[in-house]
Amino acid sequence: MERETRGRKGAEPTPTAGGGDGRGADQSVDRELLDGWMLVMEGFRATQEALVSELAERHNLGQGAAGTLVRLLTAPDHRMPMTRLAQEARMSSGGFTKVADRLCTAGLTRRTACEDDRRLTYLELTDQGKDTARAISGTVTQVLRARVLTPLGRGGFGRLTTAMRKLRDAGEELDK
Q: Are 124 and 77 within 8 A, CB to CB?
């Protein structure tokens, strides 16, 4: 009997002969692969939702704003080109401009022009933004320790990051 993967805590995909579902379905459908991928997505979604909820509750910031502040905290001189920030956040330039506007209005960031290229605009942290970004980093660390490190351990997390790096790099290669 096949084990259901969705809706059951701790359920794992059950291998099926030939990748089919045992009910005469198309043999090109690999249920184990599909079920496994759904588990990956469900685990990520649950962790991400907990993280986003905690950021909103503790810092009154959405995911885009919080992620931007953390990226800027680790960037040289606590600033990055706005176009690069938008790309890394996987946002459109228009969508990212709205996030940047809110951060600037809140006094957490400011826009600065590039001295060498007038077409380039940087977003950089203010002192208040640095403090907020450090607090956000602490919150993210707490959530990840509870939701990722506790169940996976350091070794499991290391294997997960290695696997995700491979998927990212393979996707970038395929997209070329």
A: yes
pTM of this prediction?
Answer: 0.74
Q: What angle do CA 144, 131, 157 make, to 5 degrees?
A: 15
What is the C-alpha to C-alpha distance for residues 119 and 106, in angstroms, rounded to an integer? 25
Give the pLDDT of residue 20. Answer: 47
User: Chain centroid to CA 145: how far?
Assistant: 15
64: nearest Cα among 41, 108, 98: 98
DSSP character string of 101-159 = HHHHHTTSEEEEE-SS-TT-EEEEE-HHHHHHHHHHHHHHHHHHIIIIIHHHHHHHHHH
Phi and psi of 122, rounded to 5°? -95, 150
- Give the residues of the chain that fall short of pLDDT 70: 1-26
pLDDT one-digit tens code per residue, 129-139: 999 999 999 99
What CA–CA distance (Å, rounded) separates 59 from 52?
A: 10
